[in-house]
């Protein structure tokens, strides 16, 4: 019984973190699509802030032993990869 | 048994959040003590960032149903009150 509770709490925690990551993912996609049409200088700052917030959530979930370190870090790694691709595309667009 | 697991997870979560709040509290105290001797213009930004990070952790813990909303918000309210006192003291010190 106790492991069932733990499992469901862990699943819920991972799901919440993934939802937050998906929101940031969407922000990145929107900016990718609008690369040539319009630019918002605050976008970078908003993305950085959101990713920092998510990294704190993930760090907390790992420390609270709700989420395994690898699973938590994986969410961030994927986001950061996409963010790097956005910045790359933005800088090519500038040239 | 299952409620024991939940209770211990909740207690651990609250303890982690309180530890993070205490670290910010210490930053505020240090700045209070150094009010007349030296000023660091980045202090305000560091405090804001730290409090934002903590607010995201607390929000996550509430959504994951690890921590009650009132208990979580209480930690932030107390910190923000101390931060307001610091800014008040800083502005009086400027006059």
From TrEMBL, chains A, B:
It comes from the Bacteria. Signal peptide: none annotated. Transmembrane segments: none annotated. Residues 7-34 form a coiled coil. Pfam families: DUF1507. The keyword Ligase does not apply. Belongs to the UPF0358 family. HAMAP family: UPF0358. This is UPF0358 protein PM3016_5282. It comes from Paenibacillus mucilaginosus 3016. The lineage of its organism: Bacteria, Bacillati, Bacillota, Bacilli, Bacillales.
